[in-house]
Write a structure and sequence with these properties.
The structure is a single chain. The protein is an alpha/beta fold. It is built from 17 helices and 15 strands. Among the domains are: 192 residues, P-loop containing nucleotide triphosphate hydrolases (Rossmann fold); 158 residues, no CATH class. Strands 2-1-4-5-6-7 form a six-stranded antiparallel beta sheet. Strands 8-12-13-3-14-15 form a six-stranded mixed beta sheet. The longest helix has 67 residues.
Length: 551
């Protein structure tokens, strides 16, 4: 419940303090006195956007502070989740600076606007007169029914399921599109894969073939060089092996005279054996080194195939070609698995759809269960408001496809007069009828949402006389269960208030200021009389005001 409102340097308000109480409070004042300014200031602490233009001239900043009694609203979890100190009286403050920036606080803890909106949505509802037009809006109508049916948990469950359903369907569509493109590429991928597969590549093959080709291309030079070296070893007279063999024999002859001779002969002999091994290896190479045109042709063709594959795939080694080969194989395998993935995903979607149907049915059943009681309650209340022949019907029809809110299309149908067919509200309701309908609908919404406070900004548009009196009685009745604040221009409604506030302009100083006061009993009589007949009320108007107040 709203306990107190403090406004400082907002628009035409320099300083304003106002206490509110339970029951029905009425706010009156001449057109342009500043009632909407007060509502605008209150909107700031409820999370509306701020603008530096709202700051009073030459003031550095404006401050709006509201005090709410939250002791009976079970909001402890909000304060725990947002790490804000909890008190039975909650203070929400908003400061707007001249640079256009604003700051927000809950119980002196800095918060963001989303946190303020989350809290205020559970504390107060402001109905402005232009909202009457929402009655013709399908989403508004559906929301009213869900609020009245207290469908928040069921709707949240449905929305989660619907979001999952939409996501899976999008995933399936993407998969099918990918599969379709892949199927188009399948033949090409298979050709590329087969081409590399048929090449039967080995990772080190290219280097080995290039080395072998290099030898074949220079086989004559190699043969001549190796033959010359081999001849050096085996020449009859001056061959290295013969000379070393002779040296060994000579050293052995003097071994008995020269102690180191045996060591020398062994070392020479060892060198001779090493050189003999070298010569034998050279001879082996010589025996294998010969020009083979067929082998050369094979190697050149093989390397040509490798080079063409590397050029085609823009790589420089067989290792990279093999990576591409494996990539082709993986893509082909994935293409083969698309059908399985699609079937699996379609099965998942089918299961989710069944859950979605069940969730939608639960919502639909709860909505349909309200049709008759809501229709009866609205018609009964409209009869009290001077519309005894009004007919109201909550029409619920099934949609062809799932929507974000279920499978139901909700439409409010209405007829104000006897023997007139009911039609959509937007087609048949006048301004005064919309006001009365909205009051009835709001009463349904508020009672179901357990909001402690509702503010009506001139919900009485388009009505007068006895109807206005009946509307005042309904507002007064609503005030027995919650705090109702009604901004009104009708004396019949103003007279029903438990508390009466007057908004006025103070022009005694150099600048015009907006202010508000709580009226005493005599001041109420004068104010209501002025609402009946003008600034200088007659005796008849004063008596009428007394009759409205006390009867």
């Amino acid at each position: 419940m709203l306990r107190h409102l403090h406004i400082h340097n907002y628009a035409l308000i320099e300083h304003l303090e106002i206490d509110f109480q339970r029951g029905l409070s009425v706010v009156t004042g001449e057109t342009g006195a500043g009632k909407s300014i007060i509502l605008g200031a209150l909107g700031l602490v409820l999370g509306q956007r701020a603008d530096a233009k709202v700051i009073l001239s030459n003031a550095g900043k404006c401050v709006v502070e509201a005090v709410f009694d939250v002791s009976k609203n079970f909001l402890n979890s909000f304060f725990v989740e947002n790490e804000i100190d909890y008190f039975d009286e909650c203070i929400v403050r908003r400061e707007v600076l001249e640079n256009g920036k604003s700051r927000a606080f809950i119980n002196d803890t800095p918060v963001n606007l989303q946190q303020i909106k989350e809290l205020s949505s559970q504390l107060i509802d402001i109905h402005s007169q232009h909202e009457n037009l929402l009655l013709g809006n399908a989403n508004f109508q559906l929301n009213i029914i869900d609020l009245t049916a207290q469908n928040s948990a069921q709707l949240e469950n449905y929305k989660r399921c619907f979001a999952d359903y939409q996501a899976k369907r999008q995933q399936l569509e993407n998969l099918k599109n990918t599969a379709a493109k892949s199927y188009e590429e399948k033949d090409f991928l298979q050709f590329q894969h087969a081409q590399i597969l048929e090449a039967n590549l080995a990772e080190n093959e290219q280097v080995e073939l290039e080395n072998e080709l290099e030898i074949i291309n220079h086989s004559q030079e190699i043969t001549e060089a190796l033959t010359a070296v081999s001849t050096t070893f085996l020449a009859e007279q001056y061959g290295i092996e013969n000379q070393l063999n002779g040296a060994v024999s000579t050293m052995r002859k003097i071994e008995k005279y020269l102690p180191n001779a045996q060591n020398f002969s062994e070392r020479i002999y060892s060198s001779m054996l090493e050189l003999k091994d070298v010569r034998e290896e050279i001879d082996d190479i010589l025996s294998e080194t010969e020009f083979e045109p067929a082998r050369k042709q094979f190697i050149e063709e093989r390397l040509g195939l490798i080079y063409s594959l590397e050029q085609k795939h823009r790589v420089k080694s067989i290792a990279e070609l093999l990576e591409i080969f494996n990539d082709f194989a993986e893509k082909l395998q994935k293409i083969e698995s698309f059908d399985e993935e699609i079937i699996k995903l379609e099965k998942e979607i089918s299961e989710i759809k069944e859950n979605l149907k069940q969730s939608a049915k639960i919502l639909s059943d709860r909505r349909k269960a309200l049709q008759k009681p809501v229709n009866e309650q609205v018609e009964q209340t409209l009869a009290l408001l001077g519309m005894p022949n009004a007919k109201f019907d909550v029409s619920i029809t099934e949609l062809e496809n799932f929507s974000a809110n279920g499978l139901d299309k909700v439409e409010f149908l209405f007829s104000a007069n006897k023997n007139r067919a009911i039609q959509p509200i937007s087609l048949v309701a006048s301004g005064g009828e919309l006001s009365r309908l909205m009051l009835v609908i709001k009463s349904l919404q508020i009672s179901s949402a357990n909001l402690p406070t509702i503010i009506f900004d001139e919900i009485d548009t388009g009505i007068s006389g006895e109807t206005a009196k009946k509307m005042g009685e309904i507002l007064q009745k609503m005030g027995e269960n919650l705090q109702v604040i009604a901004i009104t221009h009708l004396p019949q409604i103003a007279a029903k208030g438990n508390i009466h506030y007057k908004v006025y302009k103070d022009e005694s100083g150099q600048e015009t200021k907006t202010n508000i006061i709580q009226l005493s009993e005599n001041e109420r009589i004068t104010e209501i009389a002025q609402m009946i007949s003008g600034n200088d009320p007659s005796e008849t108007a004063i008596n009428s005001a007394k009759e409205l107040l006390f009867n």
